[in-house]
Amino acid sequence: xxxxxxxxxxxxxxxxxxxxxxxxxxxxxxxxxxxxxxxxxxxxxxxxxxxxxxxxxxxxxxxxxxxxxxxxxxxxxxxxxxxxxxxxxxxxxxxxxxxxxxxxxxxxxx
Length: 110
Hints:
Elements: E1 2-4, E2 10-12, E3 28-35, E4 41-49, H1 63-71, E5 79-86, H2 87-103
Antiparallel strand pairs: 1-2, 3-4, 4-5
């Protein structure tokens, strides 16, 4: 894989993926963009988290009481990964994800 350096050409790089590192599940995401002095997006932060539905143990509570308690609560989403990248790299990521989605169109593994 060729990697573009900052204006000095390309170098060869190879991914080193440790088979002992288990991917973390993520079912939530938050995208944050920071602007430069012109207001243009300078970088983007991608936050991935995992939300586990809370266990509800309210003995004797009606369904309406449980729903009200849940609606008035704020539940944390622990971050499992945070990644920052330039807008250009985000566009590359978008292209790669679009290619994968197009190639697997019709798959039901959502």
